[in-house]
Design goal:
The complex is a heterodimer of chains A (about 350) and B (about 200).
Chain A (H helix, E strand, L loop, with lengths): L1 H13 L1 H35 L14 H11 L10 H17 L18 H11 L1 H10 L3 H32 L4 H6 L16 H14 L11 H4 L9 H26 L19 H21 L5 H28 L8
Chain B lengths: L2 H22 L3 H21 L3 H25 L11 H30 L6 H4 L4 H11 L2 H22 L11 H6 L2 H4 L15
Classes of the chains: A mainly alpha (about 350), B mainly alpha (about 200).
Amino acid sequence: MDQLLSLFNTYTAEFPTLWMTVKILLLPIVPLILAVAFFTVTERWVIGWMQVRRGPVYIGKGFLQPFADVFKLLFKEIIIPSKSNLFLFRLAPMLALIPAFAAWAVVPAGDGMVHSDVNAGLLYLLAMTSMGVYGIILAGWASNSKYAFLGAMRAAAQVISYEIAMGFALVGVLIAAGSLNLSEIVRAQGGNGGIFEWFMWPLFPLFLIYFISGLAETNRAPFDVAEGESEIVAGFHVEYAGSAFALFFLAEYANMILVSFLVPLFFCGGWLSPFPESWGLIGKGGPHWLAVKVAFFAFMFLWFRATFPRYRYDQIMRLGWKVFIPITIVWVMVTGVLVYTGVLVPNS
Amino acid sequence: MSFEVLLFYVLAVVLVAASLAVVTLRNPVHCALSLVLTFFTCACLWLLLRAEFLAIALVLVYVGAVMVLFLFVVMMLDIKSLPDREGFTTYLPAGLVVAAIMLIELIGLMGARKLMQGGGVRDAAAEQGLSNTEWLGRVLFSDYILPFEIAAVILTVAIVAAVALTLRHRPNLRTQDPAKQSATRREDRVRLVDLPSSSGSKQP
């Protein structure tokens, strides 16, 4: 056993890049794909429940439904439209998926449970999420289809607009926490007040705006005009079938789960307990608390989809530029004043 | 050859190839995408130099926002109607002059740096035990606050100018007033009429 372990250690020391690849595959990617699979079936159950019907119940009581869906998609033929740009048509789904997975490198699941504890983690996250739109735009353009192109144009304008509000909301978090490191941001929300130490109270407008912008960034209802099945069929991925469509689907749901992780991490104390630290066992933080919060925000995604009608396109633009961005700018200044007057104490 | 050096050469080759592709490819969408690749590879090179803030800002601003808008415009072009290498020879001399001047400037900079410090690159952030991002933030907002604010004012003026230059007021344009729309109540739009069912329309 010791020999094996030492062999393993020399091997990982010899090929650090290879070992990193294996770790990346084992830790975020496989659990993420499984989470996406069960998220899709949960979505159908939740929406079914809200619409007073049952949702998927037949294949393994519904639990095996996502696997049936995946294998169906994998075995379907990929149809390539005539006069489409073949190279970009094939590249687009991958470009959508890569940033959606790459962003997970800096997301902590608990205290110290993070792949890469980089100092500029928040900036890295912003950079990665802003790159996801390339897959959508290229898919829309390369398909050589009017509906797909319209979807791509809408997605591009929407993502650019809401990225600004999202970035400003995170500037507030950065000022309040005094760090760009995601673990440090969570630690800055610790203390004896439990739930009242979280950033969601002093940064309440930013908290709301960040979550709503997250909805818009991931092109989810009520901001799903990029797909808009009642107007432009399915938007940017109307020409995609089989596994190529599955990649878009995977990227969209991975991004939703990412936003469900980021909102608790930035505003709701991450893995910290809502009870004061002095309360013993339930006051102790841990990944289970983060899991509860993530489940809540993921449920909100489904809840919104089942209850809100789709926004009109010009209203989306107006909300992003004329409402959210001014509010975030003002609240960034308010946060600065709060820190200056000592109401908020950033670490470092 | 260490891994970093190998990586540097790979990235440098990709960078040069991608920037060549920007000016040689025919399809403008492919050109714009090559520019994206150029920016991204450049950011990777900067990361190798431990300039993490600059690298991520390049990806965030140029790759994530500016190039998306570029693509947005380029995709609307009708590609087939674009002229084929028109004016390549007329612009070539001017381009060559610019390239030559830039080359001389670069060589001059490298020489000056060598003379000043005897080769090694000084890492001001590491000397103070701060991360690159933190150091840059502190310096920008303390020692260089005035130039920083002037740059911000210039950019704001540029934005206002761009809006003022392109804003046209067209007559007869129908626009919505969102405040008025959301202030509308049910009584303004819906009128319930109570029709007696017995004395309705006459049968023909």
